[in-house]
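[job 4471] stage=fold_predict status=RUNNING
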Amino acid sequence: MATLTEIATLEEKYIELCKKHGILPNTAVLSAFFEAEVKKSRNQRCIMNLYVDRVKYDDYQPLLELCNEINTSEVQGIDLFVRSSCPLEDHYALPLIRSVNQKLRVVHLHDSFGKNFWRDVFFQGLSCKVLNVRSMHFHKLNIVGEFTQLHTLILDKNRIVGFGEDCFSCMPKLTYLSMCDTLVSDLWTSAAALLKLPSLKELRFQIWISCSDSSPLISQSSPSSSTRDDKNTFIESDSPIEADIWDVVEQMDPSLPVDETLHSMDFSYKIPEQDDLDSRISVSSELNGEVLTREKVRRGKMPYQPKDVSPVESFTTQFGNVGLKYISSKASPICSEKHYRMYMINSLPKLQVLDNLAIRKSDRDRAFETYSANFEDLPYKRKKESVVRVLEKRETRSSKGISQNSYKRSLCAAKMGSSASPLLHSLPFLSSRIHQEDDNSRLSPRQFEYHPLDPSLMVFGTLDGEVVVLNHESGKIVRYIPSHGSQSTILGLCWLKMYPSMVIAGSANGSLKLYDIQKASSTVTTSSHATSSGSVTFDEFDQLTSVHANSTDQLFLASGYSRDVALYDIGRGTRLQVFANMHQEHINVVKFSNHSPFLFATSSFDKDVKLWDLRQEPSRPCYTASSTKGNVMVCFSPDDRYLLASAVDNEVRQLLTVDGRLHLNFEIVPRVSSMNYTRSYYMNGNDYIISGSCDENVIRVCCAQTGRRLRDVTLEGNGSDFSMMFVQSLRGDPFRDFNMSVLAAYTRSSSVSEIVKVNLLASRDSTEEQSHGLRSYPSNSMGG
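[job 4471] inference complete, writing structure tokens
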């Protein structure tokens, strides 16, 4: 224990240092000495509170020298606070914090520092036991430094989207972690990061607040949001987090070690229970003042509803004769994922409390059942196995009767199991200025298609009406066809399979052309002569959104913002017929089947998907299948057994092609947005589907046979301005298993869209900043 004499000696030393540097002592520092003496007189632990945000440049040097003295004294701990904008720059504040690193106990940091400060903290580490970080502007968290003493980590109200591969790898004692009110949404990468915490017992992404079902709800005032400034002063705070950490410090029991104190005050309290429920009920640190109120509610003595709660979910449970309704507050987006709680409980076997609700044995049993029914741990129902082991089996043929395709699937599963974070790679051509006449112009993709025969090629059309053939393996442009006329956006593209150098391009203004890419320019140019040879012009289809050729390359169809579909003869270059009024609203996408040259499907915002046969009267479809919302697109499975229909706001269903009966409803959670246009395609042949929506930055991968979710892939934006991303379109790679490309865009209007390649079998480099998707355009329903 430090004595009063020692505290007084340190105070005198500080005053002498101030005189030496010709400045007045900082009142906040003097107050810290006074509070330490008071605590000593009350037989409390000798903890000093250091408010870095009250330190000015003139105070810096004497305080730094004082901290070196404190670090070698018998002061038992330093609680360090930066609760508002700090006048000290990074290169001043960081040495000050490091100077008391050995004594650090609680560190509360508001994001008033630059990226260099946070990189140093996260890569070098701190020796504190509690770290509370508020409003940090890092979309991807990668804490890899030595935090060997860290017991409690509070990351509430930060704009964290995801985690680096090595995040949390050096926190052996971390027991309590809170990430409420963040932007974290991915179950898979989150669980993989959290598995690196061997001591994690309590986790929260939201706060469940209880209120009685036994009588009408009555609003109650929430605990004071004031934060203690000094002995006689209070500062009003707009953030409960600032009050939280102060409450934790102020209420610490001097007789308890810091670990037990933080356990009991910051995250949880105990209530004796009469049933077999786990008696340990956890609460948010920002709701410490509600402990007594909740106990009264639990016992049925009063109804209760906290103030300013924005519930996203609720449920009711029974405690004796009192029904308690729990309302979710401060939830991160991950909490909205279907089966979120069951997924996390099953994935984190050592976790004891999730979102301040205890995990019971019955919860674990139910979590296992729910996980097994709704998720795939690895593709093709494979068990986790190393890549080396799979290759050894293949070479030695130790498993008789196993086909090469089976080995291939096992190898895919082994590769996917070795990494939770897939490799995302933006095609590089977009980062260069390619128009010699206009240095400010860049290609802005709006639609793309893989080549049907060449694994290295894809074609994309731009917002300015250009058609570009790209080697997506090297990122080099192979052929370029400049825009013509009014530079209308390319919305429809279709390769011919029998004539693989030919591609049909349809524009929003109705223009339809067939290009021979072998006769197109091999260099980027704005010359109109580049399109004068090797192209065929068809009759226009006004307000076009979709084109598709049949399996024999004899015919193609066009649809758009009308209720009609036009049929064209490719060989003759003529329009054969217009099928009128095929739907009640405009037809967004039309698709021929992959094997029959006569069958085609249409999807419309009238909520119907229809199958048609050119050999029958076009006024009557073979059948009609309805969705609950407007259909954005439809496509056939590679073997034509199924139709995959995607309606607004994540309504994705698989139909039997033969009669339109529902085969699978993928039950993706909607965002409750009428503008959330969803698009889905097949991947790995008929095995999996990929789905993305224009209001979300997530691609969902589901088994096409069972509907179980294999993985979610989160697109990460540029961390400089936190513009969110959305999925404009996507395609599975027809030549590479578990590979796809995504047309992605930022909500920032000054950036261009990007094509992002995704490889689920490879791991992204944890030290590389991934930057995907650029320019925001109106989120519309055009094309697939």
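[job 4471] summary: The radius of gyration is 31 Å.
[job 4471] exit 0
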